[in-house]
Design brief:
Mean pLDDT: 90
Distance between the termini: 20 Å
Shape: globular
Number of helices: 5
Strand content: under 5%
Structural class: mainly alpha
Largest sheet: 2 strands, parallel
């Protein structure tokens, strides 16, 4: 069972990357012009002060989209460190945002990059917590 863990984690990583590409690039309508918002945290201000539930959901969706990436990266790359998760998720998110800008597939924004990195970091944190709990419980389960 332990021998299958690494290959399963790599397959999960590929599936997660495909899901990210599908949700952010494939199912978008091509616009007529390139759109961008370069002000950091504009969406948070608009959500909080403008009370836009839809914008809050978009922020949450961006965080949730990258949550599994942080989780499976940590397993697939055998102990991926936090800085690696930030770097890899930032690079993937930046590529997605630049692709959206280039192909006119939505709004390029730094907030999405921030939210995606935040989601991956949260996934990494949950993985590390679960791994720590598992290491404490597993010896108890095998000693019976």
């Amino acid at each position: 069972l332990n021998r299958l863990r690494q290959p399963a984690a790599l397959v999960s990583l590929v599936v997660e990357l495909a899901a990210i590409m599908a949700f952010t690039l494939l199912f978008r309508e091509v616009g007529t012009q390139r759109s961008y918002e370069l002000q950091l945290f504009w969406s948070y201000r608009a959500w909080i002060f403008g009370k836009s539930v839809a914008l809050g959901m978009e922020i949450l969706n961006n965080i949730l989209l990258f949550f599994p990436l942080g989780f499976v990266l940590t397993d697939a790359l055998a102990g991926c460190r936090l800085w690696m998760v930030i770097l890899i998720s930032g690079a993937i998110s930046s590529l997605v945002e630049l692709s959206q800008l280039y192909f006119k597939l939505g709004l390029f924004e730094f907030d999405d990059i921030f939210n995606n990195i935040l989601g991956a970091v949260l996934g990494w944190c949950v993985f590390c917590i679960l791994r720590s709990i598992g290491r404490k419980i597993y010896p108890l389960l095998t000693s019976q």
